[in-house]
Design goal:
Bound molecules: adenosine-5'-triphosphate, magnesium ion
Low-confidence stretches: none
Shape: globular
CATH architecture of the largest domain: 3-Layer(aba) Sandwich
Mean pLDDT: 89
Distance between the termini: 35 Å
Strand content: 5-15%
Radius of gyration: 30 Å
Number of helices: 20
CATH superfamily of the largest domain: P-loop containing nucleotide triphosphate hydrolases
Number of strands: 18
Largest sheet: 5 strands, parallel
Oligomer: single chain
Helix content: 40-55%
Length: about 450
């Protein structure tokens, strides 16, 4: 039985609504002002509120404002006096679901409530799904449902507890730092320090003393002993980001540290014992750098004990809808906005786009689109032109400099299948007809291209 709270200062309206609603099967309570309604709503859950706008003490607008401030989610329907349409619309802008004008007929009230009920049901269903998604497809703020990323989660869980060095590779923006943090947080070192170091951001001349420390007098500016980042990370994790930027002479020194578990500060004659878990990351191809003599092979092997490779976003588009949802929610709460949806056209464009900047680019796109959104909806015009005009993925494919027939045909096939599934909203029988292939062949290809878990 749904519970409806009636708020009105007129005794006879309260009485009438109580009768109508009880008879229609609702549980009803009536109060005579906004303040009393608020008290009632904060002690027990009411599915819907039917509230007058003009009331002494707290009026309907103030009630709506306070509900929003206190994050009390319930469906509110306003009742306005005849001719007070502007005030009613104002209330809808503030989050009321609908309004009815007084005097109203019995059927009008009941119909509006039925519609609201449907919305309330959808809202709950949505919340339940979101919660379920969060639980199933997230791991320490890393959101992904693709098989490739689920495999990464599994590896992270498995190797977090060991001290072995982990090397995380992947294009820029694929989540290397998030994974590194997850390794730390899920290990028994979580209470120890987490020390991220961007090897490319520290001037080469300072890098050695930053990493390993120095003693007083080691060089002109060294007027006292200084602990290096490795010692600061003792009993914790050091994250060597952009490891490919490490100069060759320091690569030798790092290798020694990894092998002997101690560091020697610049200018010192003593080694300091350390207990540090090393996680390194790079977006570069280290093996190629080894082949070109730019990265030491022995260090590469020493770092690459447990490799974790993060796939680019374009190879796991089934993660795109989930990430869109996640970032809409996150940026709404950061920006204080209330953007609830993305139009199917905008979503399709985002699923067809190649995302060279990976998840970071997607996150920035959503943040920008939220700021530009009208009517709380993200639409095509809120997307940057490189995405909104990337419509023609076929053209893009053919204007590239890749001449491999094998790769290009595969990519072409993937694009056509994606289009057919989008067009038929995931109806595989109809999609196979459009593609002029058998249903079986389509199922096989959907699996092959990893397109099975997508909400088209
Ligand atoms: N699977 C994911 N779920 C949620 N957020 C993600 C995911 N992957 C990346 N992000 C977010 O995207 C941004 C970039 O991620 P991160 O900094 O870990 O990338 P990176 O691989 O280290 O990139 P770079 O090589 O440019 O340093 C961050 O804001 C991060 O929170
Ligand atoms: Mg990074």
């Amino acid at each position: 039985m749904l519970r409806v709270l009636v708020v009105d200062d007129e005794e006879n309206i309260r009485h009438m609504l109580k009768l109508i609603l009880k008879k229609a099967g609702y549980e009803v309570k009536a109060v005579d002002n906004g303040q009393a309604a608020l008290e009632e709503l904060s002690v027990s859950g009411w599915d819907m509120v039917l509230s007058d706008i003009r009331m002494p003490q707290m009026d309907g607008h103030q009630l709506l404002d306070t509900l929003a401030q206190r994050d009390i989610a319930t469906t509110v329907i306003m009742m306005s006096a005849y001719g007070d349409r502007d005030t009613a619309l104002e209330a809808i802008k503030k989050g009321a679901y609908d309004y009815i004008s007084k005097p109203f007929k019995k059927d009008e009230v009941l119909l509006t409530l039925r519609k609201a009920e449907e919305r309330e049901r959808l809202r709950r269903e949505n919340m339940r799904l979101r919660e379920e998604t969060r639980r199933t497809f997230s791991f320490d703020n890393i959101i992904a449902r693709s098989a490739a990323m689920q495999k990464v989660f599994k590896t992270v869980r498995k190797v977090a507890g060991y001290k072995s060095t982990v090397l995380i590779t992947g294009e820029s923006g694929t989540g290397k730092e998030l994974v590194a943090r997850a390794l730390h947080v899920n290990s028994d070192r979580a209470k120890g320090p987490w020390v991220p170091v961007n090897c490319g951001a520290i001037p080469e001349a300072l890098l050695e003393s930053e990493l390993f420390g120095h003693v007083k007098g080691a060089f002109t500016d060294a007027n006292k002993d200084k602990k290096g980042l490795f010692e600061q990370a003792d009993k914790g994790t050091i994250f060597l980001d952009e490891i490919a930027e490490l100069p060759l002479n320091l690569q030798v020194k790092l290798l020694r540290v990894l092998q002997e578990n101690n560091v020697r500060p610049v200018g010192s004659t003593r080694n300091h014992q350390i207990d540090v878990r090393v996680v390194a990351a790079t977006h570069q191809d280290l093996e190629k750098m080894v082949a070109e003599g730019r990265f030491r092979q022995d260090l590469f092997y020493r770092l690459n004990v447990l490799p974790i490779a993060l796939p680019p976003l374009r190879e796991r588009i089934e993660d795109v809808p989930l990430l869109i949802e996640h970032f809409i929610e996150r940026h709404n709460s950061k920006l204080g906005t209330n953007v609830g949806q993305i139009s199917p056209a905008a979503r399709n464009l985002m699923m067809n786009y190649a995302w060279p900047g990976n998840v970071r680019e997607l996150e920035n796109t959503i943040e920008r689109a939220i700021v530009l959104a009208d009517e709380n909806l993200i639409d095509v015009d809120g997307l940057p032109t490189r995405i909104s005009q990337s419509q023609d993925s076929l053209k893009q494919l053919l204007s590239g400099d890749n001449l491999s027939i094998k790769q290009t045909s595969r990519e072409l096939e993937r694009i056509l299948i994606t289009r057919a599934l989008q067009k038929t909203r995931g109806n595989r029988t109809r999609a196979s007809e459009l593609l002029e292939i058998s249903h079986r062949a389509l199922l096989y290809k959907i699996k092959d291209y990893n397109l099975q878990n997508i909400d088209w």
